[in-house]
Each structure stands twice: as C-alpha cells, then as structure tokens.
Specification:
This protein has 136 residues and is an alpha+beta fold. It is 45% helix and 11% strand. Strand 2, helix 4 and strand 3 form a beta-alpha-beta unit. It is globular, with a radius of gyration of 16 Å.
C-alpha cells in the first residue's frame, strides 16, 4: 500500500514516535516546559536517541542536554539563570542552554541574526542535529 506522506512527513512521524516512546526524553521535555514553555530540546540529545533506536542500541542519554530558546529581549545571563533552574530540578543531567538569538555571533559572524528559533536550528553546523522538540 502506498503512503500519501511525503518523505519529510514520514521522517517527522518516525522521529516523533521515537521521542514519544522514550521515557527520558519525555521527562526532559516536561522539565523544560515547567521552567519555560519556550524552551526546546535540540541537537545531539535528539540525534543520539533516534540513532540508538534505528541501530537497535540501548537508549541512553549519553551527553549534555541541549536546550535552546529564542528571545531577542533577554540578556546572555538569562541562559545561566535557566541552566541553574534546570539543575535545581534535576542535577543528573548535564544541561546546556543557549539563546539562539545570539548564536550567529559564533558560527555565522558575517550573517544577520537569526529571525526565529526554527531558523537558528536549521543552521546548526551538523545537519542531523538540526532538530528541536518541545511540549505544547
């Protein structure tokens, strides 16, 4: 039977299913939402989880937890404040928080600021990490 889903939609559906079925990912998503509904889980945390499932490996959070948000009105210090709040809730994870509003200063110095979180994530240097998730 032929699917009406585009390849992109099929990938998105597969990724959502993998993330929805991972207790650690769901716990992390609930934690970040409790701190700020505009925070998103991104990059290596998601890539590694999906890779582990597709390769039949044990699912383990292996690295830092990449949390991103986009706020053109907050200072850089807000990242540290959010990180500290996340550590208070759960110190078992290695939280790393970044306001993507400022990230063009690191890898894209000659580029204008990113207009949105979606745009910033799409510019992550490693293509498989160009993904974000959050709980609505």
């Amino acid at each position: 039977m032929k699917s009406n889903l585009s390849l992109e939609d099929a990938y998105e559906k597969c990724c959502k299913k993998i993330l929805d079925n991972n207790d650690d990912i769901n716990k992390i998503l609930r934690i970040i939402k409790s701190v700020n509904k505009n925070l998103a889980l991104s990059a290596g945390t998601i890539r590694n989880t999906i890779w582990q499932v597709l390769e039949g490996q044990k699912q383990v959070i292996m690295s830092d937890i990449d949390i991103v948000y986009y706020d053109n009105k907050s200072s850089k210090e807000e990242e540290n404040k959010i990180e500290k709040e996340l550590y208070k809730i759960n110190s078992n994870y290695k939280w790393q928080v970044k306001n993507e509003y400022y990230m063009n200063q690191y890898n894209f110095i000659n580029e204008p600021k990113f207009p949105s979180l979606y745009d910033a994530i799409s510019h992550f240097v490693e293509t498989p990490t160009c993904i974000g998730a959050y709980v609505r």
